[in-house]
Amino acid sequence: MDIYGENRTLLDAQAQALVRDISAFRETLRSRYGDDPVEHLECRIKSDESMREKLRRKGLTETAENALYGVHDAIGVRVVCSFLRDVYAVRDYLVGLPAYEVVEEKDYIRHVKPNGYRSYHMILRCGGDLYAEVQIRTISMDTWAALEHHLKYKKTINENTALIVSELKRCADELASTDLSMQTIRDMIMESEELYEDPAG
């Protein structure tokens, strides 16, 4: 039996509402600047199997109540942005919406994990006291996370562990440097366009 029971409908509705809200922000910026801050947007409800495994790992009874309120990522949203500044623009937008209460924030961009992982994580309390985990990152951060997961998922590394960890961290740092460079280039282009449109400004 599905661990969420009759609550799955509520989860689906809340997930769709969150996606609609982020999509509205995208449309606003598209209309204003002709530029979409989001490269792509993914949303999922944690599967029954994954949720049960997480509850077991945390020593919690496998009940609908714990699935909804004992952990905070039954709803998961990943927002992948083209540029670094857009990550924080999406974050600020969500913080400003009255429909959501920020329960927790972790900035793994300014406070990078030891392995090089970067992303902005938020736990939001949504309608009906449901929770959603939102991860916001750039294309580079998302690419690194996907490749790192692919390389290490369910693999036991017995040799060259330190070297592998070091190389993964180096790759993450190089991608982060690229993010900063691309943001600088974008800022220069936007500045140039503004001057072209309004020479007197």
List the helices and strands and how they pair.
Layout: H1 8-33, E1 38-45, H2 48-57, H3 64-70, E2 75-81, H4 84-96, E3 101-107, E4 120-125, E5 131-138, H5 139-152, H6 161-197
Parallel strand pairs: 2-5
Antiparallel strand pairs: 1-2, 3-4, 4-5
Helix pairs in contact: 5-6
CATH class of the largest domain: Alpha Beta
User: Which homologous superfamily in CATH is the superfamily of the largest domain?
Assistant: Beta Polymerase, domain 2
CATH structural architecture of the largest domain: 2-Layer Sandwich
Average residue-wise pLDDT: 91
Query: How many domain regions?
Result: 2
Shape: flat
Rg calc: 19 Å
Largest sheet: 5 strands, mixed
> What name does CATH use for the topology of the largest domain?
Beta Polymerase, domain 2
Question: Strand content of the residues, in percent?
Answer: 15-25%
Notes on the structure:
It is a single chain. This protein is of the alpha+beta class. The chain has 2 domains: 5-138, Beta Polymerase, domain 2 (2-Layer Sandwich); 146-197, no CATH class. The chain has helices spanning 8-33, 48-57, 64-70, 84-96, 139-152, 161-197; strands at 38-45, 75-81, 101-107, 120-125, 131-138. The chain is flat, with a radius of gyration of 19 Å. The mean pLDDT is 91.
